[in-house]
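Dear colleague,

Following up on yesterday's call, I've attached the two folding results inline so they're easy to grep. Please treat them as preliminary; we haven't cross-checked anything against experimental data yet. The first protein's sequence and structure tokens come first.
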Amino acid sequence: MSGFSVSIAKPKDSNTSVSIKRQIEPRYPGWAYTHGISSGYAKIAFYVDEYGQASEFFPIEYSYPAFADELMVTIKKWDFLPAKQNGVPVKSVCHAYWEFLPDRAIETNALFDTSKRVDGNAGEGYRTLKYREDEELDSRIGMTSFPGVTIVRGSGLLQEGRKSIRARVNFFVDQRGGVVLPHVVDSSDPQTNARLEAALRKASFALPTYQGEPTIALLERTYDFPILWLQEEPAQEL
């Protein structure tokens, strides 16, 4: 038998989390068989957009890379129902967790959105990668560079002369200080959310560490993002 759970909002709330419409069980990796690995697990973070399309898969925890690779390949074959806010489908960031056991049914499969804590104690045992939340890091890491949110004058997105946009965002910082899977939780100007996320992708942070070693960090913070006003849209990079 396989166990499956999905975190959802309260029944009276019109907000819901992402759910799986169709899933395929991952195979036990051949690498693990040949290396005598008796079990393993992986957690993957990724977007699910308002149409239920999944993209940008990022391993955030695993016992061995082979389990993360197998889970990522399999998730691409799943079908999702998007999260909803006030009854309207929205883009969100999800975490998928899978525990692998050879020649047996999957023990645990859970899907979470980032409003819910993924249990860091699940599947305890040998692991080579584990993400950490802000309060777990050796020290609070700061943003070292940010290019600004670009808005074209006359575009109608914002009143000209605005200097900043306030937004609460969650995102991962990788072991090199780069931003992965940025997502606007809420902002003063929702029509600019896509531009906020694009700008945050270009930001840099101090390297996150846990017990002196580089790690992946999951952060949720509120910023006043500076606006960079342009006369026209910049040319797209090929």
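Below is the second protein, in the same order (sequence, then structure):
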Amino acid sequence: MPDRFLRVALGVALVLLALFVAQPYVTALLFSVEQPRAVTPRGELSPAEASTVSLFERAAPSVVYVFARRAPRAQDLMRDPYGGEQGGQGGERTGTGFVWDAAGHIVTNNHVIQGGSEISVRLSGGEVVPATLVGTAPNYDLAVLRLGRVSAMPPPIAIGSSGDLKVGQFVYAIGNPFGLDHTLTSGVISALQRRLPTQEGRELSGVIQTDAAINPGNSGGPLLDSAGRVIGVNTAIFSPSGASAGIGFAVPVDVVNRVVPDLIRTGRTPTPGIGIIAAQEEAAAQLGIDGVAVVRVLRGSPAAAAGLRGVDPTTGDLGDIIVGVNGKPVHRLTDLTAAIQAAGVGQTLELTILRDNRTRTVQVTTADVGQTRP
């Protein structure tokens, strides 16, 4: 009896082992699908997805790829072959732009086309069109191009306002990072009123900061709000490696909307100013100065006509400290430059100054100081 039980148990164990070994083969034989599977309907896109898709489809045809080539120079022998601006190599600089009007004007960054002797634009449909440089505004890192003959002019992109933006708003960037054209990234406005140094040694105030991924090649492209309107021109990233680190910057569209028409009309934009050399903010802060300390007043400038004084070169005594403009406080240089830029050229401003520990007001009329030299 025990022997029979052992034989039965051994037989059952062998059968189970055989079934275990054969199971993958049986499953593959019985359940393999050797024809295309039926597609499962996904249903409607979520409202957020549908809105983003619609935004991209409206804006993308107005976004272009910009190439600026220049003749090779001897200095290029020392160039890192992988270090070309915006992902280009050798004598090529590349970036993004967008259609401004029905005449074929393209807005991009000045640093994208700077030094280029041959500029081309690739449209969203793939057509490559030569472009001419209309004007540049290095102080704002902006440039305007004009397309040559095209088979079909892309539509101008919708323009918004940057004056009522809020931190936390959704934003979208369309550009050509690393040469991958028409790439959409999204994020939020992470800060406002940032300051950004420009190539001319000036600072652009009111700059938009975003965490939307902006990489080399995005420069000159539009930063859009959730309505698909341009609210800024992507211009820089803050990253030691040159790749997106979650901090990107855009020139506010209100500045763009003021500068671009000047570039189209005359090829340049006036640089409003009063003709002073201001002290470095760090040095002023160390001296406990709350305001803009005037170091020098340029000869023949509006500031000179208004009687402003700089630091006495003989004694080293402080000159005037600008603490207000048109009744609003001035704590640092960007407060003053923002007020001057908003006023424009030929406008009279009332400056509140500290002189010899006394407060007084002076009237000064802004002028175009773009060509002024100390």
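For the second protein, one point worth flagging: The helical segments are 2-31, 47-59, 110-113, 253-266, 281-286, 302-305, 333-343.

Best wishes,
A.L.
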